[in-house]
Design goal:
20 strands; globular
């Protein structure tokens, strides 16, 4: 360590946003750790602060601006990165005193700024970070980002302008990172990207090599290879292409978790067309039926937007009928938010804020009944769960194959004495409430 830094320089780190932003944060933290910087969750006692922002919807922008302002109130050296950082002029107009502003997946630019204002204390060629890098998740699960950006032009979204066009990571690089995570004790890998189904499309599904064998850079081959690692593999954000059927077949074979996260966004063909999304609701319902025929135990999750510009009561009724027929296990609903720069802002017939929210509440109430019935159907079944936490009062807080962390429900095991985070346990479902399952342990 340099004599200038007998005590390691300390960097405060604040991270907001989605799992993809979490992965960006982990890359930055890993590089900081490898150079000997000390990381802190506090701003007031740090030599410099990095704020990793989100900039997708108005609420996220407001949260990011508040986080920057709070950091500046406690520290006069602040670097801003992440999705909101892609709008550097907007950030600097709000806070001209920030030291530097970078966009998402820009760890190199962040490190350059850090070196400018807080020189590195350690030779980066001597490894101080663990092989799996620094992670923000618990030790037993981790996010694995397989691509950046997106090639779709959905009118409500500005992700392509923030994160660029689809850019898939080489498959050997993805597999090596996955192996390193498993070697470090990770029991569940959550695959994320903006459009997971499109993995490899931008590079013509180029053939790579892993373990001495050729492997196409395509989701099917990647999922099959990840399924050989002996841990839970969960896929997020699968655009519902016909090719997803082959992924569901892997789920039926037990190679990856029977969990499908497919954002349908709406069910009215007219609104879907305005969103620039696939506009055939009957095809979506048929696809859902086909997925369940291939893998009867599959959990299907989706997200929907209420109050999109031009949405009439008839359009909304089509959405409610879709949910009644599709009977999805898990659903997220968002009232439309006019994101600065999104083409949808120019569409006519904006829906009033109160009506957007009212329709959101109505859709959630409908789905609450459906989700509860789906959970009730599991009572009496046996399953393997992964323990996230052990609470003295509640017992073991675990998740089933159908529950993603921080998104879906829990499996609460009151007699979970002796279990630890990261343990797999065999349980029998005994009860449920609106969101969670309750279970008792059975012999492994």
């Amino acid at each position: 360590m340099s004599p200038l830094h007998a005590t390691p320089p300390r960097i405060g780190f604040v991270s907001l946003g989605c799992p993809k932003a979490t992965v960006d944060a982990e890359h930055i933290l890993t590089r900081l750790a490898s150079e000997g910087y000390e990381i802190s969750g506090a701003c007031d006692d740090a030599d410099l602060v990095i704020v990793n922002t989100c900039g997708f919807i108005d609420a996220a922008i407001e949260e990011s601006l508040d986080a920057i302002g709070e950091a500046l109130s406690e520290n006069d050296k602040v670097i801003v990165t992440g999705c909101l950082g892609a709008r550097a002029g907007f950030v600097r107009e709000a806070y001209p005193q920030v030291l530097a502003v970078t966009g998402p997946h820009a760890d190199g630019e962040v490190m350059t700024a850090v070196h400018r204002y807080l020189p590195r204390p350690h030779d980066p060629f001597v490894d101080l970070a663990p092989p799996q890098g620094v992670r923000l998740t618990p030790n037993h699960y981790a996010y694995l980002k397989i691509s950046e950006g997106c090639n779709h032009d959905c009118t409500f979204c500005i992700i392509p302008s923030l994160r660029g066009a689809l850019a898939s990571r080489p498959i050997h690089e993805v597999m090596r990172e996955a192996e390193t995570l498993v070697e470090a004790g990770v029991r569940e890998i959550l695959v994320v990207s903006q459009d997971t189904s499109a993995y490899g499309l931008d590079i013509g599904y180029r053939t790579g090599f892993w373990g001495g064998r050729p492997l196409k850079t395509r989701l099917l081959e990647l999922a099959r290879a990840l399924g050989e690692l002996g841990v839970w593999i969960r896929l997020h954000y699968l655009y519902p292409y016909p090719s997803v059927d082959s992924i569901v077949e892997l789920m039926a074979e037990g190679r990856i978790l029977p969990y499908l996260d497919a954002p349908f966004q709406h069910a009215s063909p007219r609104i879907l067309q305005a969103m620039r999304r696939p506009a055939n609701t009957e095809n979506a319902l048929e696809r859902i039926r086909r997925w369940r025929a291939i893998c009867p135990g599959i959990t299907i999750r989706s997200t929907f937007i209420t109050g999109f510009p031009g949405e009439t009561e008839k359009d909304f009724e089509q959405l409610t009928r879709f949910l009644e027929e599709a009977r999805l296990d898990r659903v997220g609903v968002f009232a439309y938010s006019p994101v600065d720069g999104a083409p949808a802002n120019a569409l006519p017939d904006a829906v009033p804020d109160t009506l957007r929210e009212e329709r959101r509440d109505r859709l959630l109430a409908l789905q609450e009944d459906i989700s509860t019935q789906c959970l009730e159907a599991r009572i009496g079944s046996q399953m393997t769960v992964l323990v996230d936490e052990v609470d003295e009062e509640e017992g073991a807080l675990a998740r089933s194959p159908g529950d993603a962390p921080e998104i879906d429900g829990l499996v609460i095991v009151p007699d979970g004495e002796g279990l630890r985070p990261g343990d797999f346990a065999q349980v029998r479902i005994t009860d449920c409430d609106v969101h969670d399952l309750y279970a008792e342990r059975i012999a492994d």
